[in-house]
Each structure stands twice: as C-alpha cells, then as structure tokens.
Design brief:
This protein has about 425 residues and is an all-alpha fold. Helices cover about 70% and strands about 0% of the residues.
Length: about 425
C-alpha cells in the first residue's frame, strides 16, 4: 500500500465493527431453528457457526465486487463518505438487535452507502441498474422463493416420513438440521462477510491505497472473516429467540427443510454476485416451513413487525448516513464528532439491553411476550387443506371445553371431547 491515512484507518476499524455487529445480528439466520428444536446446545451451535462463517469468507469475492465496483461511482467518493455509511448501518443493526427484530444487515449497509453517496455527490453517484437488479429485486424475491421452497420441502418431508419410526426419524432430522445449519453458516460467511470486504476495498480505492477495480486484498478477506466469526460466536440471542420461537413453533422436520431451502437460495445468489439478505431468505424459509406443517401456525403479528423493519432498513440507514456525512464535511472535528456520537449511542443501546438480559441460558426457556396469537386467515386456510397431523386430536381434547351440565338429572354428565 502506498499510503494509509488516519481517516482511512478509522474507516477500516469502523467497517470491521460493522462486520462484528453483522455476525451477532445474523447468527439467528443459521442457528435459531437448530437451537429451538434442541438439535444443538446454544454455545455449541454458535461456535460451529462462527468457524463456518470464517471458512465461507474465503470462498468467493463476487458480492464484494458488487459493492466495491458496482453500487456507487468510485470516482469522487471520499473515505469520510464510507465512514458515514457505516455509522448509519451500525446504528440500525444495534437498534433492531435491541428489540429482537431480524432486519437485514446487508440492506442497512446498502442504505448507508447510498445515503452517504447521494449526500456527498448527488443522486448520480448511485448506479440505479445495479441497485435494482442486485439489491432491490433479490430483496423481494429471496423470502418468496425461500418460503415456497421450504413449504414444499416441509410437505414432502412429512409425506415421505409418514411411515418412518418416530424416534429414528427424529434423530435423523436432527442430524440433517445440524448439517443444513452448517450450510447456512457457510453461505452466510460467503455472502455477508464479503460486504465488509467490499466496503473496505472501496475505502482503500477512495483513499488512494488501491487501484480502481482492484479485488479485495488477502488481509481484508482475513480480517473481515475473523470479525464476522467473532460476532457470530458471541451470539445475537435476542434475535435467535424471535427467529426460533417468535415466528412459529418448529419441529426438526421443519427446521431441516427451512435451513436447506435458505442455504440453497443464499449460495446461488452469492455465485451470481447478488447482495442478498440472508435474513430475508431465512425468515421466509422459516415462515414457509411453519405453513408447510399441517396444523402449523405462523405468528403474523411478529412477521408484520419484521416486514415493517425490512421496509424501513434502507431509508433509515440512508438518512442517518446522510446526516453523518453532512457533519463530516466540517473537517476533522466533524468526523470526530460523528465518531463520538457512534460510540456513545452504541454504549447507550448496550446499557438498555442489560435491563433484560437474553443469553444462551434463557434463549430457549424464556416465555414469549404477550398472549399466544390465534391462527390467522392464511394459516387457517393452509391448515384446512388436509387434516391435522397424528397426535393433534389429543391436544385438541385438552383445549375444547366440555358441554355444560344441565339441571335435568336424567341428562348425562359432561364428557371430554
């Protein structure tokens, strides 16, 4: 490298901090269903996910190139612009983690980069065709495709395993869950770690340390992989709770179908260079698996909150990044002010999170907030396609009230339905 200024060093450190938040924010993508069904212990699950995230970071650079070479015009982009973009992405990640919403770290980064670039150089700094084809369209298609695939896979899994021995089948599906969770972790490292590689590479190009159109250096790949692996190991327990138990109640068959479907979608998108949200893919797959089991229920109130967060991610991160870029224009003191604001806000969010600690000791046992949600129109319609699974009638007997006894002594006493 020819030069490495102080602002460039700040940008690299901030990018790795974002990568760290991406790791603990998105751990749920790979391991929530595995933990919720008991296939793996929480700490073992996140350790396995961390290792595979690190391995996945070395498998491809296509997504990194989409960010460093395609999304925004490299010419005229200063390191301060990228720093502002990272501020918007980090704060959105921390806020959604605090409330346990699995929003997209990828879209937070994209939104931050777009907002800061537009504030700095105008709307022409964003390549609209790349934004639409490789960011927005995959954001819409990913949860739909993964959800439909998981729904069909769940139906097929239950159909093929109808006559299988219960204990043997459950053991086999748990093993399948572990394998598919590992595949999702590998896919997550391949897709999400590359986004930080791309943003660091873009900063190095903007700062004059790399030639335009350069691929990420090896040290960038290694540092991004280590940062996301460390974040993954610490575990985003709040979001794991939402993904594992807040959307639907999963059985091992459903967990296996959901994770396999999501991993397939993520790996295919990484190969094509799409900046896909692993959160969208896994969330769609979990909901599809919930609808795929006869009698399964998807908690649409939680899903609605999640959809709203998805819609707000790009504009919210863009707005914060644009404001941060405006302050950074004041010079070194402006950049220092934004850095202090980022550190203070992050610390405040962490302090608030300590009021209700969620970790590996209570992520599975914690009760869901609020009363149980009744089945909605969509779930009722899906369940009506065929009768409930074996064993559901016993559960129904416990929930349907017996008819009230009448005053006539000749009338038979109430019985359990």
């Amino acid at each position: 490298m020819e030069s490495f200024s102080l602002i460039l060093a700040i940008v690299v450190v901030t990018a790795l901090a974002f990568d760290f938040t991406n790791g603990f924010h998105d751990t749920a993508n790979a391991m929530a269903t595995t933990i919720s069904t008991g296939a793996l212990k929480p700490k073992v699950a996140v350790a396995m996910s961390a290792v595979l995230n690190l391995v996945g970071a070395f498998l491809s650079v296509e997504v990194a190139n989409t960010i460093s070479k395609g999304l925004v015009d490299e010419t005229g982009i200063r390191p301060e612009v990228i720093f502002a973009a990272l501020v918007g992405a980090i704060l959105w990640n921390l806020l959604t983690w605090l409330v346990g919403l699995p929003s997209s770290s990828s879209h937070a980064l994209m939104g931050g980069l777009i907002g800061a670039a537009v504030a700095s150089a105008g709307i022409g700094a964003v390549n609209g065709d790349v934004l639409v084809t490789k960011v927005l369209l995959p954001a819409i298609a990913a949860p739909i495709v993964a959800g439909l695939a998981a729904l069909l896979a769940t139906r097929m899994t239950y159909s093929l395993g109808r006559k299988a021995d219960g204990r043997a089948a459950a053991k086999g599906y748990r093993a399948g869950q572990i394998a598919s969770a590992g595949l999702v972790s590998l896919a997550h490292g391949t897709n999400d770690a590359q986004k930080t590689m791309g943003i660091i590479t873009l900063a190095l190009i903007a700062g004059g340390s790399l030639a335009p159109d350069s691929d990420p250096p090896v040290w960038v790949i290694l540092s991004a992989g280590l940062a996301i692996a460390l974040g993954t190991y610490l575990g985003g327990w709040r979001i794991i709770r939402t993904m594992g138990r807040g959307l639907t109640d999963l059985q091992p068959q459903q967990g296996f179908a959901a994770q396999t479907s999501a991993a397939t979608v993520i790996l295919a998108s990484s190969h094509l260079g799409f900046s896909l949200s692993t959160t969208h893919s896994v969330s769609g797959a979990v909901m599809g698996a919930g609808l795929g089991r006869k009698g399964g229920v998807v908690r649409w109130s939680t899903a609605t909150r999640m959809f709203v967060a998805w819609g707000l991610t790009l504009p919210a991160a863009a707005l914060v990044a644009a404001l941060a870029e405006w302050v950074c224009r004041a010079g070194d003191w402006g950049t220092a002010l934004v850095a202090v604001f980022l550190v203070a806000s992050s610390f405040a969010i962490w302090r608030i999170s300590r009021r209700e600690v969620v970790d590996h000791t209570n992520v599975v046992d914690a009760e869901e907030p609020g009363p149980a949600e009744p089945a909605g129109v969509v779930t009722t319609a899906m369940a009506a396609v065929s009768p409930p699974p074996a064993g559901a009638t016993e559960d129904l007997a416990a929930t349907v009230a017996a008819p009230a006894a009448t005053a006539d002594p000749k009338t038979p006493s109430a019985t359990t339905v």
